[in-house]
Structures are given as structure tokens and as C-alpha cells.
Write a structure and sequence with these properties.
It contains nine helices and eight strands. It is an alpha/beta fold.
Amino acid sequence: MSAPQFARRLDGVRIAYETEAGRRPVLLVHGFASSGAATWGATGWVRFLSEAGRGAVLPDLRGHGRSDAPHVASGYAPRQLAADLVVVLDTLGLDQVDVIAYSMGSRVAAALARLAPERVRRMVLGGAGPVELFETWDPDAVARFVADDTLPADPTIAAVLGPAFSAGADREALAACVGGVAGATLDVPAEIPVLYVAGGADAIPVGVAELARARGSEYLELPGREHLNTLTSREFKRAALEFLA
């Protein structure tokens, strides 16, 4: 992949991204407490797409990776995160792209489709369902855990945030991201084709099969796969590439 480059919003926020050469680059949108390289490079997606002749664009969402990290929740509203992606596409001169997104990234990709539907041809949304995880979290419990590692009653808060903090993530930025993204929808304009993907053992995207059915969209369930190892599935990769053909 290329060395990290930066696109800049008008307010000065810089969004880092990497690229992989190839035709019809696919925009890859990572999940919470991750980065483009960790989600898509380390799990084999970039190489898989490259072997198929497709290029890739891997942004780091604000608050993640090498991108700037505001500490205000409003900076992480889905529309802001989507606008960051538009700036990356503008910087690269890409008028329209296919999108593959995962987990929180699926909600950011959906926001991109609502903000700038003309920029999106087709979408693959994985690891997300109608219930947004952060909306189920107690904000006070999150704040206490961020401040001094006070364990919350909801074990998912520590399970998600704890490893990120141990790895040196910006605590205040991730807390702001939780606040800004909470309640974000998966709504995508009807004219954009979507493939939804979920691991059969993953509780996070509960209800996504019904969502896909109601929308008339394609749905792929990967038996036995949990939230993290769904990303490594070769069946997921093959289905996404076929859908984006």
C-alpha cells in the first residue's frame, strides 16, 4: 500500500488514508477502535481485492489511526464522519466508488450514502444491524471507565474500550466517538444496492436479516463466525467481490 497521505477538511481536521493501486478502487471503511490497515490490510482484504485487479482506499476515521482526533462528540456525528470520506474521495479525484464497510464503519458508510448518494455505486455492509450498540450503553458508565477504569455493569463497554485503551488509543477521542455515533442508523437510499453480511454467532448485528428482507436486499450469513473473525472469512470476501462486479 501507499505511504499514509492526508485529506483536510475546511475546519483543519486531517483524515489519513492509504491506497492500493488497481482499477475501480473500493472504499474500505473500518470499525470502532481500529484503522484502515488493521481492519482491511491485516485480514487479507487488500490483497484479495488486488489479486482481483481492484484498487482500494483505506481511510482512518477521525479519532482513529493517524487521523486527527477531536474530543467533542459533535465532531463524530455520522454526517461529519461521512463528510470526511467525501473529502478523501475529492482529494483522490474519485467521482463514484463501491464501498465495503464493517461494524461502526457500516453506519458511517450508510451516512455517506445519504449525504452524497451520487458518490456510491454499490455497498457491502458487514457486522451491523438495526440496533446501534453505543445507544445501549450508559453514558455515565462510559465516562467513568474512560476517566479511571471503573468497571461498568455492562461488560461490553469494558470489552470494547478496554483493549483499545491498553493499546494506547486516545481515550477522550474514542469516548467522543461513542457519544457522536450513538443511535446512528443503517438507512441507505433505496436506489443504492446493498449486500448485508453478518456472522451467525455475532450478536451485534441482530435483526439484520430482517432488515435486508424488508429492504429487498441481499443477505449473507456466515455460520459460526463471531464479530471479529467474520472479517477473515474468504466467503465474505468472495461474496463482496461478486456483488461489486
